[in-house]
């Protein structure tokens, strides 16, 4: 199981392996504070900080080598317009974690479902992931609806899973299990 640098495609999207050069393109979108309502992160401090982070992610693996890190910038096919990014971590036990961002101007147009389904299927077929899971803040109704639409099943309620923006955050863990 080795990280790949393959661009994934859907009918409307090119899902490109994330590289440091994407920082300049994605930075303005990632500065939107509305994207961070349900996650314990803030917009990037600077373009330089984002570039440095993306440069680290180009290694495609955790520092200890125990997890494969896959990150993609997602753009409209045949266009220079980026709609978001998607990330996955493939763990040694065959489980994979999935997370994503769709930039505000592109939300509610089906892009999240399209890119998440393509990456989920890639994790199962190419990386032999036995299952794919997502952790979602219980207040994030859009993400809950998305993963349920994609066939993920709620398997756990995680009270006080995180603390951010001066409040405790509960999460659901959803899982998509590979069918035989």
User: Which range does the strand content fall in?
Assistant: 35-45%
Report how far the terminal alpha carbons are from each other.
20 Å
Q: Which range best describes the helical content: under 10%, 10-25%, 25-40%, 40-55%, 55-70% or over 70%?
A: 10-25%
Query: What's the overall average pLDDT, rounded?
Result: 93
Largest sheet: 8 strands, mixed
Q: Give the SSE order as H and E letters.
A: EEHHEEEHEHEE
> What low-confidence regions span 5 or more consecutive residues with pLDDT below 50?
none
- Care to count the β-strands? 8
Rg, rounded, reads 16 Å
Q: What form results from the Cα inertia axes?
A: globular
Q: Structural class per helix/strand content? A: alpha+beta
Number of helices: 4
Strand order of the largest sheet: 1-2-3-4-5-6-8-7
What do you see in this structure?
The chain is α+β, with helices and mostly antiparallel strands. It is 24% helix and 36% strand. The protein is built from four helices and eight strands; from the N terminus they run E-E-H-H-E-E-E-H-E-H-E-E. It has helices spanning 22-30, 47-57, 111-125, 141-149, and strands at 8-9, 13-17, 67-76, 82-91, 95-102, 131-137, 153-164, 167-177. An eight-stranded mixed beta sheet has the order 1-2-3-4-5-6-8-7, with helices on both faces. A hairpin with a 2-residue loop joins strand 7 and strand 8. Helix 1 crosses helix 2 (47-57). The model has no long low-confidence stretch (mean pLDDT 93).
């Amino acid at each position: 199981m080795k990280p790949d640098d393959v661009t994934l495609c859907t009918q409307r999207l090119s899902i490109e392996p994330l590289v440091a050069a994407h920082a300049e393109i994605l930075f303005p979108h990632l500065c939107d504070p509305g994207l961070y309502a349900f996650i314990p992160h803030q917009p990037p401090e600077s373009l330089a900080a984002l570039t440095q982070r993306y440069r680290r992610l180009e290694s495609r693996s955790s520092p200890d080598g125990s997890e494969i890190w896959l990150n993609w910038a997602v753009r409209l096919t045949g266009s220079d317009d980026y709609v978001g990014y998607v990330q996955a971590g493939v763990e040694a036990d065959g489980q994979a974690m999935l997370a994503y961002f769709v930039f505000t101007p592109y939300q509610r147009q089906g892009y999240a479902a399209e890119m998440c389904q393509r990456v989920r299927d890639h994790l199962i077929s190419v990386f032999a992931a036995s299952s794919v899971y997502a952790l979602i803040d219980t207040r994030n109704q859009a993400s809950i609806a998305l993963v349920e639409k994609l066939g993920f099943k709620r398997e756990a309620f995680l009270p006080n899973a995180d603390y951010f923006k001066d409040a405790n955050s509960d999460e659901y863990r959803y899982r998509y299990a590979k069918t035989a």
